[in-house]
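note to self — DONT lose this again. spent like an hour looking for the file last time. sequence + predicted structure for the chain T wanted, 1401 res
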Amino acid sequence: HRLAIVFYRLGTGPAIRDHPIAMTGVPDIPGGQASGKTLTEHPEQALLPDDLTTALEQTIRQKRGAVGPAIDDQQAHASGHSHGRGKPVSIFAAIASGLVNYLLMFGLCCAYGMIMFGEANARHRALAVKMNMCTSWTVGLALAAFCNIRVAIGGPDLTPIVFIAGFIAEMSKDIAQQLQLEYPVAQLSSASAHEDNHASEWCVGAHAEAHFAECADYHEQLRSTVVFAVAVSSAALGLLFFLSGRFNFTRYASYVPTCVMEAFLSCVGYKVFKYALYFCNHDVKQFAPAAMIGVPLYFVKAYHVGNPALVIPLMLFIPLAIFYVVVFSSGKTLEHESISEWMFPRMENVEFWVVWECSVGNPSRINFQAWLKTLPLLAVMLVVCFMDCLLKVLGTEAKLPVKVDKDSVVRLFGVSNALTALSGSPVGYMQLKFNVINAGILGNVLDRRGGMVYALLSAVTWFWSIEHFNFLPRFFLSTLLFFAGAGFVAENLWGSRRFLSVGEWFQILVILVVFVVTESLLNAVLIGILLTCVDFILTYARVPCVVEPPLRRAELSCVRRAPMLQLTLDHILNNWLLVVRLKGFIFFASAQTLVAQIREMMESEVRNKVPPCRRLHFVIFDCSVMDGMDASTAKILRKLKSEAASHNVGILWTHIGEQMESNLRRQELVTGDQQTFADTDEALHSVEEHVLSYQASIHDRWVSLHPTFAAHRSLSAARAAFEPFADVFIDDTWRHGCPWQYCSGVGMKQYSTLLWSPGQTNVGLFLVHSGAVALFREIPDLDSDSPKAWRSPIAVYTQGWFLNRESLLSQPTEYYAVALEDGELVTWSRAQWGQMAREKPRMAFDIAHAVMKQQTDDAEHASRHKQEDFLPEVMHRKIKALRIARALGAFKMYSAFDGEQRPLLPPMPRSLQRSVRMAFATFCDAGPPTVAEVPSLAAGHACGENDGASPLPDSTRLPAESVVDALMFAGVFNVAPSLPPGAEGLSLQDFIALAHEAAMVRLSEAQAAQLTQCFKDFDIDGAGALGITELADTLTSAFSYTIVPEDIEAFLSEWTEQTTKLDVTKFLSLTSRMARILEQDWHLLQGMGEVLYLGSAPEVGPSTRARLTVETLLKAAPALSKREAEEMLWTADWRTGGKRGGRTIEFCDMLCALLQPPLRQLGRLPRNFGDHPVDPMREKCKRSQAFSRTVTESEENGRPVLPSLSMGDGIGGADDYVVVQEQPTPTCRRRLHSFLEDPSSSTAARVFRWVMGALIVGSMVLMVLHPLVAPHTWAKSEAWTYPGESRVWWILEAFFTIAFTVEYVLRVFAANATGKQTALGFIAEPYNICDLLAIVPFYLEFVVSGEASKLYEILRFVRLVRLGRILRFSQFAKRHPLFGPVATVLVVIWLIYLKTNLNDA
């Protein structure tokens, strides 16, 4: 159906309309012809909705391209074809349309002429009518001939005429003042002005005889000045139209506040109605029939009732014919005294060339001094008329099925008004009402002949005569004015409430009231602009200038760090950092609210005596979506900057360009070099570095509590500087061989090394050992003529992070990997990974496990919502190690030997022996082994046995300075071996012996016996060897070493060739090796026990109850102050977010504080290991000056969103649920609410609605009849004594008011019955305000009735407020859209009438 409508409007309607609505397949669409077969008969040709939409859009574009140029040719063969609305073009329809539009325009031109010149200048009205008729035919002919809206009708408009009337009134007063004549005033306010010609005319009779020369000079100057002023206004508007269309300025028209524009047009409607009543001498017998014809005529046109070619002429000329029938049937003529009051004074024709005679022919009579007084009003006229013109163009596009090229049409307005300016005629442009009438009569939008007939008839009138105006009665012109003004009131005053807020609509009412009181359009517009500015300030004071409310929370940069370090960083930043994302153009009103929030944060910390470590330290203003700020905002922020400095808070600015930075420095918001950053990520990175330095100082305090803490940190830092595998292998107890055997080392150069590009498939896995690597979506192409700056990196990876994790899945690389710092990487090629997977599957598994874990951490980088008891995996592993160390301590594995005991040294495991030999060969002075020598070196034997032939010479030595590195290369950590004095190097055997001592713990005979007994206790079958299950039970029960049976086989392979059994000797070796590995953990545990004053190693676990308090900490370190101790405890309390207030922490928190990973280590890979540097990137990877780190898109868009719960959340899905909505309890208030507000709720409610409607209509009739039937009791103050007739009117008024009062009170009482609205919100609704205005005047009269003579002005206001009773009729707009605008029109008309009568009274 939609497709048929589209083609119907494009001109192919009949071809599709003649076929079924079930459209044919897609192949038939482009031709616009239906094949007669529906989609159901060709299901294979049916498209999905998206595809159909795409095909439809393509077809429409093709059709527009084909139909548009052919429109001009369609008129030649229009017979028998359909166009526009489907009605064939006809010359008779064109003549009828042109005649109807001409008659309407002629009547309006006459009315416009009378509006331009008031009663005092009535002799010039004929000239004004001719001027308007000139605009009708010149603009009308230009639009009919050249406008792309073929049914366009052009001519003068009421809006500029009202301004021109203001020009003339202003110039008349000034010219009269210059000639020392007293100019009459208030000509439209009273009907009494028409009772005496001497009062309504000026410079006639005795006045003319007394001031003959002055009056003659006055009229000559006025006529010449008016023609000049009108010509200038037309030329200015014409130039504005042309330039706007030429340079596409029409898009700026929407910048004028809508409420001001709507209010002004409403004022124009009020002024038109005022002229309509003025033309009828405010005589009800004349303006009532005129309103009863003109207002319905507008709504008939607006709602397209009937055929406009019949309806409009009939509604206009039948009342005119009736008038003439009545006049001539009574035997009277138009000059009869009783008829003359229905007619205007006779208007003599003026020849068309008079315009040039009094202007170009007599330029000396132009009074430029008087014209200059109109310039302020001319400026307003330019804006308002330009907007009115565009509104009519847009309205034509909305009312008619045409596509309007606004720029082209407005440019044509400018060209056509060049003729009006040369002719001294008012500006003219497209008339929306006439366009609709023309299209309605023609039945299409393609026939230009209707507009041409209209223009030709207007031209004949201009060249010939306008004396047929003298046959038009007053009510006829008033009818046309009511017809013209109803559109302004109904569409702009009432219709605007649909798209404006309540506050904006009340602005329109205020502007209208100002105009009614002051009777000045300029004052009304100025008040409107003032109201708009105030409303704008108040509105933007409520609208936040930030993307989201500023909250104290951590924002992360794109740099990836160790999990535990990142958690501590988050904890501190949650208190230190405030990121404010500014948006839009910031005005001082909205900035005040933001600054008040930040100021309150800082001041509340001081009031609450928050420790300095927990206060706000940094405020980052993110200006990525900020457009700018005004000077007042800069002043407010400058004050905030000084206040922040007093609180030691730094303010940083991000996303600052050169121009904005220049403005910030000029406004003294930025004074240093480290206050502006290219993006938010760069600022966050700077803040993080500051926090990390602070955290390092806090960590120094922790390690100073006990010597073992410092020793542990030193050993951990040495290991981190040597190898990146500390967080890779799950447990050093079974370090399955030497990982260096299967990988290589590569070096990278800062800003030059490109590790990979997108789409490469031969790139291996990388592990960062030192330096930093950034991933970019794209890199600048420096080979192009205009190279682009570096974009923000997606992520930056530092020590311990794997890169190109996709290689494990054989996927191609993503992004560009560029080195940001000099450093080294460990890499696994695919061949190396395959060899490791075959020879050391457990090692490959551990590395793959670490890669996947980092992949998860990387994906959750922006998600930091952890549970309170959350511990990272590294801490769980450390707690497990401490638990094992505590169990080993129970076996006295770390006790000192007596001098008489002969400690035993169990043999090293096979894998460790091979690693020691490989380490010696790597670091010896002979250089690293070749590929052929590696198998021989790796063929390890038991320590102390004959090793057989070695590929290395006997003279090969390991330098003393390389001994520690060689041990760590072999997997022996946390030791400081002592070399013989003066030794410069070690042989292979010496090094193996040294490594044996460093890797294993000697066992005393008692310890060996105890461990042997433990072995026997778990050797259930007595086979002399522990099986897989038995070994698992032994490790779990004796050493708290939880290990699943599935891992035992891989575990045993490192100790013995029998992967299912472990004898007692290997068991002693296993225990000795574990004790050595966990020796530092044992010492760490002992140190923690001493600090906690427990006397022994505390129990280890996440639920350990041991706590460290401020008092305990001060005892352990007397040099600390209480504030420093609380600061240490608070920074360590990241698991609870500092909820303990720095007073105490748990054992796990203390452990985390001690085990903070060291800051960036300048690591070094083993000498001569993996010396295979990656090819450096060519010139395009050199550092760009615009390079910076920013928050990545994944971070900005990757915040976790809580899933919204739906009915399908649960077992079984949504289909298994039946949702039953709970019905509200039918309380008395609910039943009353339904009775009053919902007529469909019951029969009684429907009856009540009709009764109230009848009462509203009755009160309206009473209000209208009272001033007409008994004006003496309505407007006179003595009527308040209620004698005789007045009492009857008062009783009727009281009856209606009491009924409305009871209904209003009941509705307010039941307003909040449903819980959806409050009573105050109910009262504030526009409809209910109308109800309140309907009843308030009656009670106000009681207040002032006793002092009516003193408060008569208040009584006049009260009388006018009663018009709210008519507005109450608009509540039926919910039933029919006609009620609201009709009620509004009636209010305005009756307001003018009552205001005039009150002024006369």
